Amino acid sequence: MSGIVAVRGRRAASDVLVRLKGLEYRGYDSAGLAELAADRSIHVARSIGPIDTLIDRIAHETRPATAGRLAIGHTRWATHETAAVRNVHPLSDCDHRVMVVHNGTLDNAADLRRELEGSGHQFESDVDSEVIPHLIEQGLLGGETAFEAFQSAVRRLRGSWAIAALIAKSNAIYLARQRLPLMVRGTVGRFAAASDVTATIGVRGPLRIFEDGTIAELGTQWHWAGSAAKGPTPVVLTDDARPVPSGRYTTDAATWDQVLDSTAADIHEQGELVERLVAETIEELPSPRLATLLGPRAPNRIVLLGCGTSHHAAQVAARVVRIVARVDARAVVASEFDTTLLTPFDVVVAFSASGETADLLAALDQVDTPVLAITGHPQSSLARRADVVIDTDVGRERGAAATKTFTSQVLGGIRFALTVAHAMGFASRAARAASLLAMVPHEFSAAIEQRGPISDDDARILAAEPGWVFLATGAGLPYAAEGALKLNELGCRWAETFPVAELTHGPLALVAQGTPAVLIDDGTPRCATVRSELLARGARVITLGPPRPTSTEEFGRHMPWGPIEVVPSLQYLALSIAVARRQGAESHDPIATPTVATSTN
Question: In whole angstroms, what is the distance from residue 199 CA to residue 78 CA?
């Protein structure tokens, strides 16, 4: 997801750049800025690359003699068309009187573009977002005021959006939201609007989170339209969006860029996080808040929804519910959710790191049963939609790929599962599970201290391999899938996940001399067999586990939540490959530099 910022203040353009810089931890490939000068003309700058490239470009450009107090900015991840300057936001109308930044996808963009081109509008980019400024221009040419033209344009859109616009000769910023996060903090004299609450930190005043359908004109007075004619209700934040903890974790590799170093910090901070969340779970058990969600009648079924990393966390939680609470629980990819799965006595658990995952929110539009949200953003759209919220309380995750948010979601799911066990009359089972959970922080921290399963030399060799396989069985499968996803996001390598028994049913053909194979070994004979088969084909096998046996036979040899202690190893593995590829690029090695993708799960 791209990032947008809109600012009113004494040094609006500089403020936008600072706030865009704060969003850069997600790993973007271009950025742009539009500033409304004092004479009401608009000055625009765009660049390919990190925010520093845009900052450097602006420093060497001739700026308006008297800068204005309004500016908008955008950081783009090129999911739609190429990362070329013509496609960088802000995007303009024909006469460059309207500038727009947009997150989201417009389902009817092709139809609108054909209509606008038929009316004489000339387009300069390849992206769907450019229809927005031309629609606004159309309204202005028809005699509408700036706010009327903006509203008319938004009401013709279909899809998802968070939009900020500047219109020449106007003295306002125009904002609209549909299915994507947008918020504003501050007052009439100074405010910052953004797609991420972290980009509003430092502005005094209440935070207003836009609901779907909200349209606003923020000028010398604020005007609202759409679903919130009186404006969003102000929100009081007691922790200022959970600023980054002090005591930044550092590494020895001076060549690591901001994204990789931030990911290392996030991984390292999980030790303290796990210890705190486990202690809270055991202390609160059974949770009165979560028990109210279940109501007087035992749930018929629990459906756990998530996307990407959050889906993997949901898979772990679903297994714990089935084993400990003996309730039917199914993890479903949110975008594939089918309401026919639900009965009136079901409970839905929704996992999202940001609380703004569009596919998840769309799935919840179809739900009329109780909803539990597991998210790190208690003021998010998901949290406001849910009946009860488990705040994973991870603080800001600075890396591009979800690491500590995954771990916190797994632990949040376990907390819910143990409460369900109590509600179902299995208090003794929940207590035994809690005693096993108390062992997790020590083992998790030990895995962090090991700093991954491979050496730097091994990483240098493995980074050249284009395809990987990740293998596990039973409770280890969600972790294998998450490890593969981390390698996709950080190392930009293809990775497939298979149950160990499925390897011989076709996928073994993918394994060749040198193919990296990550095996989460649970100690069963089948894992040993598969390892031998991989080695026989020349694979480089990285084995994690086996986990320790437990003394509780009722739960089997393994913890009900599976080998959670392998999570840091899998994360460090992906990070090591990303670092090796970057270092190879710096030394002009044929290994390409990875382009770090964003994650909004």
Answer: 21
pTM above 0.85, yes or no: no
CA 6 to CA 73: how far, in whole Å? 6
- Which residue in 296, 248, 297 sits closest to 268, CA to CA? 248
Cα–Cα distance measured from residue 491 to residue 373, given in angstroms and rounded to the nearest whole number:
30
Task: Evaluate if residue 165 carries a pLDDT over 70.
Answer: yes
The answer, yes or no, to whether the previous bond of 90 is cis (omega within 30 of 0) is: yes
pLDDT of residue 587: 54
State both tokens at 286. Answer: 């059974």
The predicted structure's pLDDT at residue 249: 31
Question: What dihedral angle (degrees, nearest 10) is formed by the CA atoms of 548, 443, 487, 181?
Answer: 120
pLDDT tens string 352-399: 998 888 889 989 988 988 999 999 888 788 998 999 999 988 877 777
- Give the Cα separation of 479 and 545 in Å (integer): 12
Domains of the chain: 3-235 (3.60.20.10), 258-586 (3.40.50.10490)
Query: By the 8 A CB rule, do 552 and 436 touch?
Result: yes
Tell me the three-class secondary structure of 56-78, residue by residue. Answer: HHHHCCCCCCCCCCEEEEEEECC
DSSP state of 557: S
To which H or E segment does residue 469 belong? strand 467-472
pLDDT in tens, 249-258: 333 333 335 6
**What stretch of H or E contains 303?**
strand 302-306
Dihedral pair phi/psi, residue 43, rounded to 5°: -105, 130
Determine the Cα–Cα distance for residues 13 and 58; give it in Å rounded to an integer: 10
Question: DSSP secondary structure string, 504-517?
Answer: TTTGGGG--TT-EE
Q: Report residue 576: phi and psi, to 5°.
A: -60, -40
For residue 269, what are the CA distances in angstroms to 149, 503, 571?
A: 48, 35, 13
